[in-house]
Design goal:
Elements (H helix, E strand, L loop, with lengths): L3 E5 L11 H9 L2 E4 L2 H11 L6 E4 L5 H13 L3 E5 L12 H9 L3 E5 L4 H8 L7 E3 L7 H10 L6 E6 L4 H12 L4 E6 L7 E6 H8 L7 E5 L12 H13 L4 H12 L3 H15 L10
Parallel strand pairs: 1-4, 1-5, 2-3, 2-4, 6-7
Antiparallel strand pairs: 7-10, 8-9, 8-10
Length: 291
């Protein structure tokens, strides 16, 4: 019989948030794969448990090399517990490779549900929670970051991001540029910890605040793109939306079609708006035929 892979959520701040089953799984596991073995030791001390199984490190640097070893242990019948520094494994943390490899070998994969910075930030943000998407960390390079943001500029669902504190001001400024300075957002800092802070406001205001320097673990929640009314989807706005999509790498024909569908207007109206915008700036459109 094959073993079982258990993905265990760990506290994102307050150790009292640890799920009750976590202590039992830590004691029952044959192998514990931990993103940071030192943090695991502090966690087990706080929970007053003593793991009986073998503890190995499993982090970004050795994830590819260690995955086959863990899969072989699972294939041999071992119960392998995977924990990361905080939150659920594989959510912007190590784990995906191991889960995929275990599934391919027919190994049972289960989870001990636990704290999640994504859901916690979403819940306290004060922004719509009925539909959302998680975007992970934005790219570090400015150009790549702008491209990624432009790809989701028209996303109607609430957006959730992780970010490093020293890049927060640049990221918020880029979001204000692409999404608009008045788009509502919330910056959630040090969730469940002693210095927890949730700063809410327009993106431009949050970018100015972050420019003064912010510390701690950061989760950003951004309101989805608004549904435009007929008066909002004027020629200039339609042309701007096409330009945003083109800058993200989309062909003009497809960009025009997508903008027309989102705005609820004929493609010809969007095409005419693009032509007018190009004529106003003195540059001819790249595609001269109407869609």
């Amino acid at each position: 019989m094959t073993g079982t892979l258990v993905l265990a959520g760990t506290p994102i701040g307050d150790t009292a948030d640890a799920p009750p089953r976590l202590a039992a799984e830590l004691m029952a596991a044959d192998v514990i794969a931990a993103e940071d073995t030192r943090r695991l030791r502090r966690l087990t001390q706080a929970l007053e448990v003593r793991p009986a199984g073998r503890v190995v490190s499993y982090f970004e640097g050795n994830e590819s090399a260690r995955t086959p070893e863990l899969v072989e242990s699972l294939a041999g019948g071992a119960r392998v517990l995977l924990v990361t520094d905080a939150g659920m494994p594989s959510v912007s943390d190590p784990g995906y490779r191991l889960v995929a490899a275990a599934v391919e070998r027919g190994v049972t994969v289960t989870a001990v549900p636990g704290p999640s910075a994504v859901l916690t930030a979403l819940a306290v943000s004060g922004l719509p929670v009925d539909r959302f998407c998680f975007e992970g960390f934005p790219p570090r390079k400015a150009g790549e970051r702008l491209t990624r943001l432009r790809e989701v500029a028209d996303e109607r669902r609430t957006l959730v991001w992780f970010e490093a504190p020293h890049r927060l001001d640049d990221t918020l400024a880029a979001m204000a540029e692409v999404f608009g300075p008045d788009r509502r957002a919330a910056v959630c800092r040090e969730l469940t910890k002693t210095y927890e802070e949730v700063r809410r406001g327009p993106l431009a205001e949050l970018a100015a605040w972050a420019a003064e320097g912010v510390r701690g673990e950061i989760t950003i929640v951004v309101e989805g793109a608004p549904v435009p009314g007929p008066e909002e989807a004027g020629p200039a706005e339609l042309a701007r939306r096409v330009a945003v999509r083109e800058e993200a790498g989309e062909r003009r024909k497809e960009a025009i079609a997508a903008v027309a569908q989102a705005a609820g207007v004929p493609k010809r109206q969007v095409f005419d708006a693009v032509v007018a915008a190009k004529n106003a700036t003195g540059s001819a459109p790249r595609e001269g035929k109407a869609p």
